[in-house]
Write a structure and sequence with these properties.
This protein has about 725 residues and is α/β, with parallel strands linked by helices. Among the domains are: about 140-340, Nucleotidyltransferase, domain 5 (2-Layer Sandwich); about 565-640, RRM (RNA recognition motif) domain (Alpha-Beta Plaits, 2-Layer Sandwich), CATH 3.30.70. The chain is globular. It comes from Oxyruncus cristatus. GO terms for molecular function: exonuclease activity; RNA binding.
Length: about 725
């Protein structure tokens, strides 16, 4: 029986913004699998990639996230089918970034470059036996127990062991050594400071096998701190002042969290365990797993970039993020176990490290070189190690990618390129040719008359204005001299408030409340309309404007949107509650998959609400009934179905804080022009949605389909793009 492919991605809140490198990462893995060193993308996961029937990318030329939400009701098929969505950073050369081409990579030279790489691999494979990874583990893929450190290896590498000198007062996790290849993996990382005692823990992070953060806490050292090591730890004296948690509290929590057969994963994990003063029998140390000669070790930062394609420990950040490091170590171990030693050895990490060092030396020389020495600098530079794009790699495997559109999409000869004069012709060619290709890029466009920067700016302003109205409610009437504080407190229980003002133009006072999230405004309308607040029975409503006449319809469609399926919104949380507190509080809810705690993107402080995503829709319905009326730390919770839990939440926040500056003057100038053309635009968008629906229905089962609104870069500002993705299954909907 054919295996069904599946796509999973935790795209909530801050995790919804995807770069072109990350998109390239997904498409490369989907198209090539584990060949050509294509690894699972870092931000989502494809299950049973080898069973994918093909990859189809639909590009909506010169369209952005604004278009999707301005014509949300017209994009009937897109919002019903594609559950996974992300904000896409706009790019100057979108298609080039889609192929994975670097700025120094000439298309006509790609095939030649790849051929030489392939021939080099033959030589390298004969030397594979000399690789320290192969010498240590052999070539065959094995279970995780083959990579846990033996007792002798732990002693040799200074791990805390029961009965060893210096470990007398250490606490055991009480996990046994009865591990199997099915035992759960947990990533662990600590940040330390220097005290009179030595190294003491100041921060601890634990993640589970799915990368979910289970523990991320600051810890107050027992002794006087001599050096906070803020450059590396990111921990400051100010951060630790209010902290009450002590090492013993963390030890107790870890003992409760870890099952009896838990395997801890970390990079130089011995240092973390010693700082925690804990003993654990089953460990995988990634600094030893990715073996090198003469006792040398790769740094975690290098391995994350070379193996996972992830940038961690960035210089612009203050200190390391222990959750990020724990997750990176975990994913490195998972990669090693899944791929096996031979595939890891083929990465040729030593060569990559040498190339990286040469590049750093070259950049240092260039920075020190006086002006006028450009020729000599070029002679001193090492040859660039450009990566071939995956379109070229596909050709080598005997596959010819298909590109269809109105303009010249590809000048390299790498693809079957067919130009058409209309979207209808492009669709017809796609219906005929896509089934014959394993990788296709189909580009539709609205036409040049609809892609002017003035119209884009006016569309943006219309969307921003409507979303602002949807976030706003009016409530009243109140008695003269009413208590504004109690009104703010009552409305604040529905969610974070952006602003609250008193309306004095009316006979009796009203209040105008603008919220930060759509769910909060809707919750206020649903729960407080007709309620008694500050001694008055009040009416709660949204602004009444022409643009808001279809607000109820839009709210209903957002609620039924497949992206919000199985997601609920919870308000009324105390701001003192941490993510760990909430994880514990909601742990009894069945099938809870992800918890997202929104933060102010400027201050980093979390809001008094959260989103809960469940594996099953019915579990979300059950949770909704259970949560309403719950009291957590003295606060009564309110909840409802989510409306904007994913990328839209972040975009709304950014719009809220833009103060409507983008293109506002243009909006008023072009209002008449937009009104004339918008009706035609609606019809075109509706037809475009129908074209995509027809194409999608023609695809084979197990086809990955990605629809991209590339975003815009213009003199009037940049507008983010939008990506929708899913794997088609028998039901017609994308598999999640």
């Amino acid at each position: 029986q054919e295996k069904s492919c599946r796509l999973s991605a935790a795209l909530l809140g801050e995790d919804c913004e995807i770069s072109h490198d990350q998109l390239y990462e997904l498409l490369k893995y989907a198209a090539l699998g584990k060949c050509h060193n294509a690894a699972q993308p870092s931000w989502c996961r494809i299950y049973h990639q080898s069973h994918l029937a093909g990859v189809v990318v639909v590009v909506l030329h010169e369209m952005s996230q604004v278009h999707f939400y301005r014509f949300y009701l017209q994009f009937k098929h897109l919002r019903r089918v594609f559950r996974h969505r992300f904000t896409l950073t706009p790019s100057a050369d979108f298609l080039a970034s889609l192929y994975g081409e670097g700025t120094d990579l000439k298309p006509q030279n790609m095939a030649q470059g790849l051929t030489s790489t392939s021939s080099e691999c033959v030589t390298e494979s004969s030397d594979l036996q000399c690789d320290p990874i192969i010498q240590r583990y052999g070539e065959r893929r094995q279970g995780l127990t083959s990579y846990t450190l033996t007792l002798e290896e732990q002693k040799k590498n200074d791990y805390p062991i029961k009965g060893s000198p210096g470990c007398k007062d250490y606490i055991s996790t009480e996990c046994d050594q009865q591990r199997t290849d099915s035992s759960p993996l947990f990533g662990l990382d600590c940040e330390m400071c220097q005290t009179a005692k030595g190294n003491e823990v100041t921060r601890v992070s634990l993640v589970d096998a799915r990368g979910q953060c289970l523990l991320n806490e600051l810890v107050k050292p027992e002794h006087t701190v001599m050096n906070y090591r803020t450059r590396f730890s990111g921990v400051t004296k100010k951060m630790l002042l209010p902290v009450k948690t002590r090492l013993s509290d963390i030890q107790t929590k870890l003992k409760k969290m870890l099952p009896h057969d838990a395997v801890l994963v970390g990079h130089s994990l011995n240092a973390d365990l010693k700082a925690l003063e804990m003993i654990h029998p089953s460990v995988i140390d990634t600094s030893l797993l990715f073996a090198r000669t003469e006792g040398r070790r790769f740094k975690l930062k290098f391995l994350a970039k070379a193996v996972l394609g992830k940038e961690i420990q960035c210089e612009q950040k203050l200190g390391h993020d222990p959750t990020e490091d724990a997750r990176a170590a975990l994913e490195l171990a998972q990669f090693f176990i899944e791929q096996g030693p031979a595939k890891v050895a083929e990465l040729n990490l030593e060569m990559l490290l040498t190339a990286e060092k040469l590049t750093e030396v070259s950049q240092s020389k260039a920075a020190l070189q006086p002006q006028g020495c450009g020729v000599q600098r070029q002679l001193d530079e090492p040859p660039r190690l450009s990566k071939p794009c995956f379109l070229d790699c596909l050709q080598v495997t005997g596959q010819k990618p298909l590109l269809l559109g109105r303009q010249g999409l590809d000048s390299s000869g790498l693809c079957q390129s067919n130009l058409s004069t209309s979207n209808k012709q492009i669709l017809q060619r796609a219906l005929e040719d896509v089934p014959l290709s394993t990788f296709s890029i189909i580009q539709f466009t609205l036409g040049p008359e609809y892609i002017t920067s003035h119209l884009h700016a006016a569309l943006y302003e219309k969307v921003r204005s409507k979303l602002t109205d949807m976030l706003t409610i009016y409530a009243g009437p109140f008695e003269e001299g009413f208590c504004l504080k109690s009104v703010k407190k009552e409305f604040g229980r529905c969610g974070p408030i952006q602003s609250l003002t008193v309306v004095t133009e009316t006979f009796q006072p009203y209040v105008c409340v603008q919220y930060e999230v759509l769910e909060a405004a809707q919750l206020a309308v649903e729960s407080l309309n007709g309620a008694e607040v500050a001694g008055s029975c009040i009416k709660v409503q949204r602004p009444v404007t022409a643009a808001m006449l279809d607000c109820d319809v839009l709210i209903k469609k957002l609620e039924l949107d497949v992206e919000n399926e199985g997601v609920i919104y919870v308000a009324g949380l105390k701001k003192s509650l941490t993510e760990t507190d909430l994880q514990e509080e909601f742990s009894q809810l069945k099938d809870l998959e992800t918890l997202f705690l929104p933060k102010d993107l400027q201050s980093g402080r979390h809001r008094n609400c959260c989103f809960l995503k469940f594996q099953k829709s019915q579990s979300a319905v059950d949770a909704l009934e259970a949560i309403n009326g719950w009291t957590v730390k003295g606060s009564e919770l309110r909840s409802r179905n989510a409306l904007a839990s994913g990328h839209l939440w972040r975009w709304i926040w950014q719009m809220n804080h833009s103060n409507g500056k983008q293109g506002k003057h243009i909006f008023y100038e072009k209002m008449e022009q937009l009104s004339d053309s918008e009706q035609d635009l609606r019809k075109k968008v509706k037809k475009l949605d129908h074209h995509i629906k027809k194409l999608y229905r023609s695809l084979q089962n197990n086809t990955l389909c990605v629809v991209l609104f590339p975003g815009l870069n213009s003199t009037h500002g940049s507008q983010p793009g939008l990506g929708l993705m899913g794997i088609k299954n028998d039901g017609g909907r994308s598999a999640c």
